[in-house]
Amino acid sequence: MFVGVFMVKKVTVVGAGTMGHGIAEVLAINGIKTNLVDVKEDILKGAMEKIGWSLRKLYEKGKIGRSPDEIMALISTFTSIKEAVRDVDLVIEAVPEIFELKKQVFREIDANSRPDTIIATNTSSIPISELASCTNRPDKVLGLHFFNPPVVMQLVEVVRGKDTSDEIVKQMIEFVRGIGKRPVLVRKDIPGFIVNRIMIRLLNTACILVKRGIYSIEEVDSALRKIGLPMGAFELSDYIGIDVLYFIIDSVRSRGMAIEPCQVFKEMMDKGKLGVKSGEGFYKYPSPGTYKKPDITALDRADPALLISPAVNEASYLLREGISSLQEINEATILGLGYPKGIFQYADEMGIDTIVNSLKKLNEITGSTEFSPDPILLRMLELGRTGTKSGFGFHEYFQENQMETIKILYRPPVAVIQLNRPEKLNSISRKMLDEIKKALIDLSSDENIR
Ligand SMILES: NC(=O)c1ccc[n+]([C@@H]2O[C@H](COP(=O)([O-])OP(=O)(O)OC[C@H]3O[C@@H](n4cnc5c(N)ncnc54)[C@H](O)[C@@H]3O)[C@@H](O)[C@H]2O)c1
Fold first, then answer.
1. Closest C-alpha to 78, from 10, 29, 5
2. Tens digits of per-residue pLDDT, 155-176?
3. How far is the CA of 143 from the centre of ligand 1 (A)?
4. pLDDT tens sequence across 1-10
5. Is CATH 3.40.50.1820 the classification given to domain 192-395?
6. What is the rounded average pLDDT of the residues 283-295?
7. Residue 285 to residue 214: CA distance in whole angstroms
8. CA-CA distance, 419 to 27, in Å (whole number)?
9. Whole-number Å distance between alpha carbons of 395 and 409
10. At residue 268, does pLDDT exceed 80?
11. Nearest CA among 191, 156, 113, 155 for reference residue 338
12. Which residue in 93, 157, 218, 314 is the catalytic one?
């Protein structure tokens, strides 16, 4: 695969577990020769069986053109990193989230690969720059954060380390697009990147509100389902695993994010109630590891703005700090969390005033400054940018009046006449001139338009 002038012909994935085998499958589906490494033959055998099973399913559904056997033939397995990284263009590390282990693996990759090989990590919480400093090529080290399962999830967070070069970032964004995924650039190596930071704000706040007896678990989840989220906060916590969730929150907290893990997660962990994997978490499941969507009675008591406002606040912080763009953050919440619309669209629809008031209320309830409204939100309020109701929020909104050849975008005191014959490359017709004339006459007598 060409990435600019650079060619990615061969990739090594280190670690054939949950993420590694899925990433190897994605690469092979896209025609890339892939080396897959793990510590034992039987783990590799299991990983290849899972890849084969998944490819057969995709083939039956017509989602891949080439046969599973042809794709499997592109993957070679290894039990030695040294052998596996010798002549590849890119290495993606996906070993367990243990700092010492990752450092050792990075040293081994660095010592045995070509000097121009790019090294990426799939870490969720370890600083990229600290892994980069174990190598002699920190400019060629970055994060490629895939989501689980990699074959299904479209999003990849491309995380820039302190020393990652512009060229490598550019190449890897193209590479991610080339394997059919949507890259979102995380411009600074911030703990939790984008998706996990936004997600844990919502899950942790939901837990705090239940712990304080303000809402019940079902009231929260019912309210979140009602605004279109694919899972309520407690459904999702169970699905992720209460231990994994607690670990994520605690590790980003220890790296400086202002968030205090809800103690209910810790209490549940101590009781072995880990969610779907243990058969019980906030909800009960048929057996350990068997997921069944919880039946939740539709209840109308919980205020969705109170629940979602900390996630909006976090997204505003990411935007203000230049970690990512508005469009990319919206996209990250849609593709990484399955929201039907971007987090900033939710904010605009609920109203920036409502979001700020909700944050102030959370501040009062908890006494914690972690809910202080971000300066972006306060500034928007000052400017009257309250969202869809004022026509301006994080986005701009116009009322649309569609005619046959033109469109009138209306937001007093402004109206815009837009030519709308794309199929004729907007060439001017008699009909269009008549419609423009009529629109101008109507608008000039409209006292709301200046
Ligand atoms: N599981 C997820 O949902 C998820 C999502 C995004 C990112 N991540 C990140 O991806 C990485 C991998 O997570 P996972 O869930 O796939 O873990 P996993 O435990 O399922 O798999 C890790 C694999 O690495 C292998 N391994 C251990 N030491 C090794 C070594 N020295 N050389 C080669 N292989 C070695 C293990 O045998 C295991 O098969 C972690 O950094 C994690 O934070 C996980």
1. 10
2. 999 999 999 999 999 999 999 9
3. 14
4. 666 545 799 9
5. no
6. 95
7. 25
8. 43
9. 14
10. yes
11. 155
12. 157
